[in-house]
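Section 4.2 – Deliverable D4.2 (structural model, holo form)

The reporting period included a commitment to supply a predicted holo structure for the target in complex with inosinic acid. Inputs used:
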Amino acid sequence: MKKIFKSTIKPGKSIVGVGLQYGDEGKIKIFDQVVPKNTDIWARFNGGSNAGHNLQCGNLEIITHAVPSFFPQPNSLGYIGSGCVVNAAKIWSEIEEITVKGFPLQRRLFISPKCTLIQPHHVLIDQNGGKEVGTTGNGIGPAYADQAQRQLEEKLKNIRLGDYLKESERMKEHVRANLEEVCGQYGLAMDTETCLEQFDEAVQRLAGYVAWDSLFLLDLVEAGKNVFFEGANSVLLDAVVGDVPYVTSSRTLAVAAYTGGDLSVDFHNKTIGVAKAIVSRVGNGPFITELGGRESEEYCKVDGGKKYVKEVEKKMYNVKDLLHSGNLHDLGIALRMLGGEYGATTCRPRRIGMLDLVMLRESCRSNGVKELYINKFDCLTQFSRSSLPGIPVVTAYELDGKKIDYVPSTTSEMYRAKPVIEYFPHIKEDISSVRRTEDLPETIMKFIGEIENAVGVPVYGIGVGPRREEFVRLK
Ligand code: IMP
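Output (structure tokens):
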């Protein structure tokens, strides 16, 4: 008998959702389908405006960066936990856009007063010094660095939202000192006064959204409300266990939901993870399964990633030629163009790689993933238009002449590791209109079975197209 999918969330419990690769897995599309509609609170626990989430609200598309994805559900609340860093001006403009599009957020969105503020000097440092990592330029790293630095002699480095609101005049002087110091270091001429005024105005606007009680979320959950923690930036970009320094600066693992989301681990129910069948990475750093290897990495970082944007590649290339060229870098460009793989936050071209089962297994294991969802399954059909003998899947690596079945733990080893590729039978059918498991071709069901065996986690659903409803629930 066919199992009926029933996703549930128990009262007083939490579910954590994370991306299992390098970000941009299409997490929100999946969360929107599988997070139970009766979820009371959607909470963010890490990062800031570096994330980019495409939300479909009826006919409207809203791209959010820092605001949790709760607002299309009429009875849900949103919470930005203390693990996040807040760019007040950016959050405010998101709030305005969401409000204009029909979703007023007053008394629905709550922000922890303990969130570290992204100060103007953080953005300057990031934009001047973040090129090698390939950051989004939002000041995320410098803000987390100052959070750890706390105070340096008389200079207050970490300024939190609540502290600023309660002592604005004193805090503003610290923001000024930090800004002037960095302008001096980089030799930047800047209208400091206007910048400080704008910063102050933006922070003050958030006052009505602050949840002053630091046990805000805990109180709600203890009273029986349930919460979904919406991971941002994905687990392979974790500040500590990712490929340092090519990572973001927050903890992105599922377990960070509890420190950054201000709830006790006691309430954890389960973790769900989202991957995609053709992997992508934006920014620099090792990417073992990248089509075209270092050539692709170098190409994608020209002009800080600003050169080969969507419109430029569209004018430069013919997709058919790229697919047939027999060159893996060309194939990567073709898959990027066909899959629309350009950054939602920065518009940069995303580097494209093969499905990596070694990494996916480790991501699932280290995050305790119980339900796996895989997006972009339909894109696998593109390989049948290429000269490859099948769908390339990485099942092991070769490191310094030795075959290994684990992810190396240093960044230099990650760069040296080579993918061991197995080819799975091509999928030729167009599956974008399929909605039921029984309508999926046998080749796909077999392929999913192979993934489950290799990864050790059941695949609960697959994405078969970019739209929200283009999704097949398997369990
Ligand atoms: P930062 O988070 O802006 O400091 O950027 C550090 C690295 O993480 C860069 O390679 C970014 O491209 C990457 N990154 C940060 N957030 C995301 C995301 O939401 N999706 C994909 N990549 C991200």
